[in-house]
């Protein structure tokens, strides 16, 4: 029984043709984002990340909390700091309406070393 989602699951389901790892450097990640759109990234989370609001995140204090997977959408520069623009899954009332910026080009919190992308299976 579906209470609010009026779509057949089997008709709406999508499959991937392949997945691949993006080399761990800024230029390869930017090229993938530009060519094919968002990628999946995993990064190390520390206690100070939960208090993020809207600045470019840089880990400064707090204990290790684990690894978290997110959707990397793009990049930019704010006040001279290069950043990745990332969508989080913690709801739109966290961070900057569910998004955050994290330091780019320094593999901050290992975010540039754990990036994958996928090719959709188009039938």
Automatic annotation (TrEMBL):
One Pfam assignment: Peptidase_C1
Occurrences of domain Peptidase C1A papain C-terminal (ranges): 1-119
Molecular function in Gene Ontology: cysteine-type peptidase activity
Entry's transmembrane regions: none
GO biological process, any: proteolysis
Matching Gene3D superfamilies: Cysteine proteinases
Family indicated by similarity: Belongs to the peptidase C1 family.
Listed name of the protein: Peptidase C1A papain C-terminal domain-containing protein
Organism whose genome encodes this protein: Mythimna separata (Oriental armyworm)
